[in-house]
Amino acid sequence: MPYVVVIVLAALSCVFGYHLPYFKAQDFYGVLLVMVAGVYVGLALADGRRSLLILELLAALGFCAVVLLGMWWKDIVLVYAFFLQAIWHLVHFQYRRIFRVKTWYPLTGMLYDGIVGAFVYFHLYH
After folding, report:
1. What is the pLDDT of residues 93-120, one digit of tens each?
2. How far, in Å, are 36, 48, 99, 109 from residue 45 at the CA level?
3. DSSP label at 53?
4. Can you point out the beta strands (E) in 1-126?
5. Which DSSP string corresponds to 89-109?
6. What is the mean pLDDT of residues 12-30?
7. Backbone angles phi and psi of 58, in degrees to 5
8. pTM score, two decimals?
9. At residue 75, what are phi and psi to the nearest 5 degrees?
10. Rounded CA gap, 76 and 74, in Å?
11. What's CA 15's distance to the chain center, in Å?
């Protein structure tokens, strides 16, 4: 069931971004990326381990930097950032006992980032 929900959310995100002007769409996709990265920060806060929180904060800050780079330098970086975040979800899935996340969240995150990342590529470049 969470996979159906995430496919619907990804489709809604894509439809919304498609109807925005080019630069507003870039901003929208960047905000989406940072929001998804922020979920892991929230999960780390709930977990309570300081080392995990620092790791997730550094990752979220890294994604923020990549989004800014994509918005200010080359917009293709936004596409790469979505696929990098999908890999970050895969790391969380592979080490889910360390990160203490539910099995479905990293998998749905990978699905969401993959769908939206592919759409961003085709929206911004075709």
Report:
1. 888 888 888 888 899 999 999 999 999 9
2. 15, 5, 11, 19
3. H
4. none
5. HHHHHHTHHHHT--THHHHHH
6. 93
7. -65, -40
8. 0.90
9. -70, -15
10. 5
11. 17
